[in-house]
Specification:
Structural class: mainly alpha
Strand content: 5-15%
Strand order of the largest sheet: 1-2-3
Number of helices: 6
Radius of gyration: 21 Å
Distance between the termini: 62 Å
Amino acid sequence: MYPSPYKRSNSSSSIYYFKYIDPITKKRVLKSTGCIKKTDAAAFIKEFINDLNDYSSCSQLVLKNYIEPWLDPNKNPRFKRYKTEGKQYGQRHATDLAKLLKEHVIPDPISKMTISQITRGAALDFRSRLLECSLKKHPRVANKVISAIKSVFSEGIYRGELKYNPFTGIGDIKNNSR
């Protein structure tokens, strides 16, 4: 069942709108279809709700389960995609990425969170936990781990499974040992 398009009563605009409940925030949201024909608006709503359901099903996965294919270099989604596209993505890179995820992400509490719970704040907390442990002396390893998890999320966005990467904009840790 899809919401019905309607015109706003207090507006002279001929654009159709609809209301839906966001599956993550559980709040009611008003959204414009950008369409002036009711049939086009209904098609827009149907496509939007179907995409929303696809996003919400992946966003309810636990991070540990979502990154499971990345832990085997031969099942790495980016490696498989690049291979079919004829692009370069080395087996060694996929192996190193799997090793970083196994050693640093899986044991961390962030791996038990659902993808929708991982916010920028949770990503920053993860980075600070990386620095507190044995990585204090080697911030390059922490940078590689953050880069690895960014890769997982950016591939999810590319594939249309996710719509938000909480690790975007988290910069590299500077090495102060010099």
